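Run log, item B.
One chain of 450 residues. Sequence copied directly from the ordering sheet:
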Amino acid sequence: MALTKFDLIVIGTGTAASTAAHKCKSKGWGVAVIDSRPYGGTCALRGCDPKKVLVGAAELIDWNNRMRGKGISAADIQINWSELMGFKRTFTEPVPENREKGFTKAGIARFHGRARFVNSDTIEVGDDTLTGRYVLIASGAKPAGLNIPGEGLLTTSDEFLKLDALPENIVFIGGGYISFEFAHIAVRAGAKVKILHRSDRPLAGFDPDLVNRLVEASRQLGVDIELNTAAEAVEKKGERLVVHTSGNSKGIFNADMVVHGAGRVPEIDDLDLEKANIKREKKGVSVNDYLQSVSNPIVFAAGDAAASGGPPLTPVAGMEGHIAAGNLINGNHRTPDYSGIPSVVFTVPPLTSVGLQEETAKKQGFSFKTNHSDTSGWFSSRRLNIKSSEFKVLVEDGTDNILGAHIYGPHAEEIINIFGIAIRSGLTTEDLKLMPYSYPTSASDISYMV
């Protein structure tokens, strides 16, 4: 067993990990990366990117259905699931090899296996023992434990994105973005889909009125959404699965597949953090404003593994990777800015949010007005024959600054970025109104939203 010394040991190879590893290596540091899975991280291999490929197919089906009788006469357009997954693999399969080649070219040492701390600065991975002047934990997230009988029968989101064939009947446990996004894909691919959510409000991170609009539209699409309904157990009967539930829809639901869509947690449980005096909490490694461990100063954390103030999003992980690396190299001097970071549920059409919701803005003592409108009659929705779209924009009294923006409708995933820029840059409603947007576009609607 060899003992190898590095300036920085990075646990993980996703966005935050890769960003920090390359930045520190560019300064002449000796850097090692460790991953027990194929190199590349969640977003590139089993999250954002492959999901968006599938969403693209769902958008095509939706567009065709909407425009039937409006000048489009193509009939019986269907998703060929196996071909779609083959196309998806053209994006995901090259990632691990390309990521490894990138590390090798940069001179970053690569280790495969699960990392475990031995003491404050030493990590074992397989037969290797590594010691680091610093350690960055950027190990990502995993599905949260549900602690119900039969949990092992659930299909994870990672596994769903690898399906060679789509089952006819699917139940999603949990009303988060994973369930809604996959449900919108699956139902348009011909599956019967049900979402079980234990409370009366799914998608808690998004505006409740717009969520209600999405729930209504999803039900009209054919997605059966059971609220205030908790999954209590899953069992296998013959070739099918049975979900036992409590709450409003107490009883049993039969399915060919039951998918875990009830959230994710930091993947740090088996790192033996206590041996390195690394404090943790529910959201991840406990860090200070500089992303440094509050209990072990040579350890930093970023992305989903860190209990920072940022949402668990890929752009946040990239930002935190840059900031952690900068603080490692030059000492603690930078802190993350989490204002104006957009979040998107990639349903069809998408639901988006940036900044504060009304309830939060009130609790924080802001005085503001809310611009709120159904936009299904606006040109941007009517030309696409979209029947359900809506927005809310929160404008601070006195300053006319944007406190929050929430959009459900066509191209919302792009429009929300402009509101994010406005929040981060302190732009006012007047600034947004005076912008000469290209027209007619969904972005040109902004001047009517503020």
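Observations after the first pass:
- The mean pLDDT is 96.
- The longest strand covers residues 128-137.
Flagged for discussion on Thursday.
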